């Protein structure tokens, strides 16, 4: 393992490899720091390619000691060349990174939780827990079950049934909290201070965040160790997007990339909860929290995003931008992706597609460049959002004349 310890993003103060997340000197967030020169000597394209197709093929750049036992099969999801959607949006080259089919709980959160629970084990925690907008709940409950870990999962009480039952099935301790995610998170911070539990996105957050780098490592490998011109990433707390930047920098430093990295990083949110994209659009230096998020993209509904400032800074620095989508646009985005590429994403993916369309139409994304859309969750988990919004199926008795009548109607309709 090449972890040197944790390091404050703001003042650079160093801390040991331990369950800490905030600098006691300046209150800045802590980040995992590695011996990059050691990694550079060890890692190579051939070595990566010789390994199993999962997120651990980049293990030198992940903060785990010893043998991988938790979340062994997570990652290495398809990078789909989306020619139909490209044509629809009027761009030359477009790819979908499809974490809607990530193993085991069909969202990118399986990546972050694998790392966080492995670290919880290293640190000797007996219980793992999380504050979640839905997908994290599924991933913590499932991966804790497979690692024989007791888990506590805290969610806002208004989540979709797929996210709720898709958590309870793993026999976790699920607690619904009246109020928004930000209230859930505040309570969990208090609980983490009282009980000695490993909260994957609180006291284990620096390690959790490292897991999301694997999504970008995979994109780079799947493009032949080349960087795309543009990436569009959905944002909740803003952790995933900041690690897109870190992952590209690490591959570059380790000499794994062809050519100079040039990726412009774009962030996507729902208009009903857009604290980060509003910061970018208004060219502000600080985040104004959204007090009462109101969107069907519940998995992204974090009003006070922990990494919001860094996310907005990264978009500006790389020449990217932030944009948001209304609920109607989100549903159109989900339908567009399904209808062109046969990929059923949840509301967060609808946000990404809708925002990509806007960025292309407004010229922020160049039509002649290569673009990757990060599709991070599965549509079967947010059925409420589309229920009643799609073409109704015909219901008929089982006889041929009835079907012919329906067929004639369908043909007339077109
Ligand atoms: C959690 C989540 C994200 C991004 O979350 P960050 O907090 O910004 O890292 C994106 N898409 C889906 C579906 C998610 O569940
Ligand atoms: Zn500090």
Q: Can you give keywords for this protein?
A:
414 residues; alpha/beta; Rossmann fold; 2 domains; 4-stranded parallel β-sheet; 15 helices; 13 strands; binds pyridoxal-5'-phosphate; binds zinc ion
The first-level CATH class of the largest domain is given as: Alpha Beta
User: What general form does the structure show?
Assistant: globular
Please trace the helix and strand order, writing H or E for each element.
EEEHHEHEHEHEHEHEHHEHEHHEHHEH
Gyration radius (Cα, Å) is 21 Å
Query: Largest sheet at a glance?
Result: 6 strands, mixed
Ligand set: pyridoxal-5'-phosphate, zinc ion
Could you say which structural class the secondary elements and strand pairing correspond to? alpha/beta
The number of helical runs is 15
**Helical residue percent band:** 25-40%
Spatial order of the strands forming the largest sheet: 4-5-13-10-11-12
Which stretches are poorly predicted, pLDDT < 50 over at least 5 residues? Answer: none
CATH topology of the largest domain: Rossmann fold
Architecture per CATH nomenclature, i.e. the level-2 architecture of the largest domain: 3-Layer(aba) Sandwich
């Amino acid at each position: 393992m090449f972890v040197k310890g944790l390091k404050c993003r703001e003042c650079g103060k160093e801390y040991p490899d331990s369950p800490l997340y905030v600098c006691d000197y300046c209150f800045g967030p802590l980040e995992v720091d590695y011996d990059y020169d050691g990694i550079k000597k060890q890692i190579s394209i051939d070595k990566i390619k010789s390994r199993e197709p999962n997120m651990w093929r980049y293990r030198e750049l992940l903060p785990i000691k010893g043998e991988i036992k938790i979340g062994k099969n997570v990652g290495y999801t398809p990078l789909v060349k989306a020619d139909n959607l490209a044509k629809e949006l009027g761009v030359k080259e477009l790819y979908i990174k499809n974490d809607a089919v990530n193993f085991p709980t069909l969202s990118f959160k399986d990546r972050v939780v694998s790392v966080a629970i492995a670290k919880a084990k290293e640190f000797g925690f007996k219980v793992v827990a999380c504050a979640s907008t839905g997908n994290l709940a599924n991933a913590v409950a499932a991966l804790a079950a497979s690692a024989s870990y007791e888990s506590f999962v805290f969610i806002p009480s208004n989540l979709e049934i797929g996210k709720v039952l898709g958590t309870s099935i793993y026999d976790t301790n699920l607690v619904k909290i009246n109020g928004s995610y930000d209230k859930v998170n505040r309570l969990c911070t208090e609980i983490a201070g009282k009980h000695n539990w490993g909260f994957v996105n609180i006291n284990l957050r620096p390690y959790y965040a490292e897991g999301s780098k694997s999504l970008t490592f995979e994109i780079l490998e799947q493009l032949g160790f080349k960087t795309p011109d543009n990436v569009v990433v959905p944002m909740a707390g803003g952790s995933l997007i900041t690690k897109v930047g870190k992952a590209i920098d690490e591959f570059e430093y380790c000499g794994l990339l062809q050519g100079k990295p040039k990726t412009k990083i774009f962030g996507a949110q729902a208009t009903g909860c857009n604290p980060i994209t509003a910061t970018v659009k208004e060219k502000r230096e600080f985040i104004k929290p959204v007090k009462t998020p109101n969107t069907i993209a519940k998995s992204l509904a974090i009003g006070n995003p922990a990494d919001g400032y860094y996310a907005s800074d990264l978009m500006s620095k790389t020449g990217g931008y932030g944009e948001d989508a209304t609920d109607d646009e989100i549903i159109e985005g989900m339908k567009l992706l399904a209808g062109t590429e046969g990929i059923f994403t949840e509301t967060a993916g609808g946000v990404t597609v809708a925002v990509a369309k806007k960025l292309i139409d407004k010229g922020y994304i160049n039509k002649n460049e290569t673009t990757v859309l990060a599709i991070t969750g599965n549509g079967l988990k947010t059925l409420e959002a589309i229920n009643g919004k799609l073409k109704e199926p015909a219901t008929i008795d089982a006889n041929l004349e009835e079907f012919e009548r329906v067929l004639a109607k369908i043909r007339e309709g077109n």
